Automatic annotation (TrEMBL):
SUPFAM superfamilies assigned to the protein according to its UniProt record, in alphabetical order: Periplasmic binding protein-like II, Winged helix' DNA-binding domain
UniProt key word Transcription regulation: yes
Protein keywords: DNA-binding, Transcription, Transcription regulation
Keyword Flavoprotein: no
Family: Belongs to the LysR transcriptional regulatory family.
InterPro entries, alphabetized: HTH-type_LysR_regulators, LysR_HTH_N, LysR_subst-bd, WH-like_DNA-bd_sf, WH_DNA-bd_sf
MF terms in GO: DNA binding; DNA-binding transcription factor activity
The protein's name: LysR family transcriptional regulator
Superkingdom of the organism of origin: Bacteria
Single GO cellular component term: cytosol
Annotated ranges, domain HTH lysR-type: 1-58
Amino acid sequence: MEIQQLQYFKTVAQLQHMTRAAEKLSISQPALSKSIANIEQELGVPLFDRQGRSILLNRYGILFLESVDIILAEYGKIMQEFGDITTPGHGEVAFGFIHTLGMEIVPELMATVPDKYPHMKFSLTQATSLNLLKRLEEGAIDLCLSQEIESKLIDIEWVDLWTEELFVIVPANHMLAQRNTIELHEIKNEPFISIKRGNSLRQIVDQFLKEAGVTAKTTFSAEEMHTVAGFVGAGLGVSLIPHIKGLEHFNVKKISVSSPPCRRKIGVAWAKGRYLSPAANEFKEFLIDYFRGEA
């Protein structure tokens, strides 16, 4: 039984006249009669009492019409919902981003979205790059902002959007606090405050330390960077982090690293070959333009 057959039945039931119903539906009367007969044959009961050219719903027809009304109403809702999803500028985007972008960059980004896409809805996820990768693999998010990520399960597209510098931070009263630049190996004897493993920032910091020949004497691994800054400001160690909003309120000095160059690239990632709704595709292009200064 098809939706069209149910729509035909409802029209006949409303008009209770086969000829007028066929005219309203713009089909031939024999075709409409055959459609109604097919429904009755499938259900195993007659739905109408025939009286000449007029037909009247019988008790089976009345019962069936109640169900048809429910089915067609739900079908209408489904078509409306998916129509909204596939209409440009409408629909929902599942968007993820790494923790370090949640303090300033993503809030400022999302503040610009309502003016450009007033009918778009967003489901936001803030997580480590490892968890974002898992959610991409599962199809739980459409897009994510992170360092470049790789999967053993799916192919991932990643577009580079911007590069950010990582700085050594030391307590404000530290002997290195008078410096504007530093070589990374100069902190090799310092206690180190790190981000926890599983975070993309931790991976790249470990890589830079290894490149500089530094074996980190990690005394604490924090969940997020403001905690790192707090521990450094309290004189408990040094660290290597990107600039964060509010860093100036901590008792730390930020120092540029001259060698090796400490920078990381941030981009937008999505599952290659997987369906992206028009809304997700629009937002992806908006992200690229926004961060490349073209929005």
